[in-house]
Amino acid sequence: MRLLGMVLAVTLGCVSPSAGSAQAQGDGPLRIEITEGVIEPLPFALPVFQAETADAPGLAAQISQVVSADLSGTGLFREIPATAFISTVSNFADPVQYADWKAINAQALITGAVAVQGNQLTVKFRLYDVFSGAEMGSGLQFTGTPDGWRRMAHKVADAVYSRITGEGGYFDSRVVFVSETGNKDARQKRLAIMDYDGANVQYLTDSSAIVLAPRFSPSGDRVLYTSYETGFPRIYVLDVGSVQRRVLESQDGTMSFAPRFAPDGQNIVFSLSQGGNTDIFAMNVAGGGATRLTSAPSIETAPSFSPDGSQIVFESDRSGSQQLYIMPASGGEARRISFGPGRYGTPVWSPRGDLIAFTKQNSGRFHIGVMRTDGAEERLLTASFLDEGPTWAPNGRVIMFTRESQGAGGRSSLYSVDISGRNLRPVRTPDGGSDPSWSPLQK
Amino acid sequence: MKPTAKIILLVAGLALAACTNPGRFGADGTAGGIGAGGGAIVPGSANDPTSAAYFNQTIGDRVLFAVDQSNLTDEGRVVLDGQANWLLTNTDFTAIIEGHADEQGTREYNVALGARRANSVMEYLVSKGVAGNRLRTVSYGKERPIEICSNEACYAKNRRAVTVLAGGLTG
């Protein structure tokens, strides 16, 4: 077998910082520009990855399926069913019969091989641009343990997505959210974490107290959230690995909520309510006093840092209704950026820095939308009885949010949508779900 | 204090344990049931004017608000005048004022809005002479509706501040 051009050893759980660094190739014909208008999904063929060892066929099939699901789930790719294949790929190292794949209009061909040796799982793949008759980028190899097979599949899909779109991937990521059961008047909530596609759900708290609006730290190792475990809303930090939690603010006679990390992972901002008035404060997550950032008699909440940490976007009803404002991270004069009809809340700065996602309430409907950081080019991506709480995929191209259905049997679910407004789809969760926060891409 | 009065207070205090269960979130307190016939006062029941049940049912434990508002209505002030008088008479009790919002709003904004509503009630009660250190506020935002339909009939009842009695037995 020819040596792969590039070998990445990714020990899952023990981090290799170079993983996932695959870059898109030059301007070949196989390219999806995500920013373009209407997109016809790009047809791809993904023959089940070859099993190179006797006990690999099961994992090879599962990995192939997850890679396909990741790509198809973007709405940018369409899988060609295996029943249409003319060629079979019997050996990962064999040359590709481009004519056979062209004949079924497969623009991209993804081949792979899976080997299990003891407690080591190795996954290799190659991406071919069928119509150019050439391999796109070099083959990649990932090594880990068999129980990390899903992450390895996501890394393969991230590399394919990244090469074809020129954007960063987002499949090897997690989502922390609030898992919900029970009717509206008896709702039980607990924090949960899962892979971006709904797999591997774990619960981080029990449902003895209301929990709200978790947010990942910039490295994904900790979660900030609000809990009523003392009977009053208080902000907490929870270590994802140990599931240990610690209250951050417990000043008597106050309520604290809406905590978010600064990009440095050390400082946080949050809302503190005193005497009926809610303002934004900052503090160090390690402890110490809180610094006031706003001082207005209006409601100031839902802060979100710019990726460079220099500014904070937040919502305030200082004008008489909920609107979006940006102020320096140290506080000070704020400028209003939302001016359309209706109310705007829950602003979240894109990880790319270019856009702000928000919830908009207008004429009895709720929308998830995006605007530029100066408020220009507002675009509404969704509309329903109740959509709220956007969170960005690590590549800034997809938004996940909460959708609650109407009436006595109303339920909360997670949905995702492209920033183009296309590809609206439910995210699978075991029970109801709300308040998602998307992690950065895992290392 | 007469021995019987002391017993009534004690029983009222015990009944409160049920009334202040945080799982109830301001649902109508009916501890003790109403009336025992013959006009006898059943301690802790709604016809015992020193009971939480009486406070909840006869005085009225809640006030309602207009959409996105936290200012008190005229009807609300009448209820709160009654609450203030009752609290000034029944000084063993403390209260937590819960602010709530309907579902037409984003989650964290509604927590802040509920805090405003609870504070409106607290400020009014204090202005009527109730000691501020007997009162606390908490906001549940839109997390604990009592009515679950998605129209104004339900929303109007969910935009509320509920005075939930606690304590007692301190004398």
Automatic annotation (TrEMBL), chain A:
A Pfam family of the record is TolB_N
Any one annotated GO CC term: periplasmic space
GO biological process: one example: cell division
Subcellular location as annotated: Periplasm
Tell me, what does this protein do in biology? Part of the Tol-Pal system, which plays a role in outer membrane invagination during cell division and is important for maintaining outer membrane integrity.
Family per record: Belongs to the TolB family.
Xref: PANTHER family: PROTEIN TOLB, PROTEIN TOLB HOMOLOG
Q: What is the name attached to this protein's record? A: Tol-Pal system protein TolB
Automatic annotation (TrEMBL), chain B:
Every OmpA-like domain range: 52-169
Q: What is its main location?
A: membrane
Q: Which cellular components does GO assign to this protein?
A: cell outer membrane
Q: Which InterPro entries match?
A: Bact_OuterMem_StrucFunc, OmpA-like, OMPA-like_CS, Pal, Pal_lipo_C
Q: List the CDD domains.
A: OmpA_C-like
Which N-terminal stretch is annotated as signal sequence? 1-17
Q: Where in the cell is it found?
A: Cell outer membrane; Membrane
| Membrane topology listed for this record | Lipid-anchor
Q: How does it assemble?
A: The Tol-Pal system is composed of five core proteins: the inner membrane proteins TolA, TolQ and TolR, the periplasmic protein TolB and the outer membrane protein Pal. They form a network linking the inner and outer membranes and the peptidoglycan layer.
Q: What does this protein do?
A: Part of the Tol-Pal system, which plays a role in outer membrane invagination during cell division and is important for maintaining outer membrane integrity.
What family is reported? Belongs to the Pal lipoprotein family.
Q: What is this protein called?
A: Peptidoglycan-associated lipoprotein
Organism lineage: Bacteria, Pseudomonadati, Pseudomonadota, Alphaproteobacteria, Rhodobacterales
- Its encoding gene is what? pal
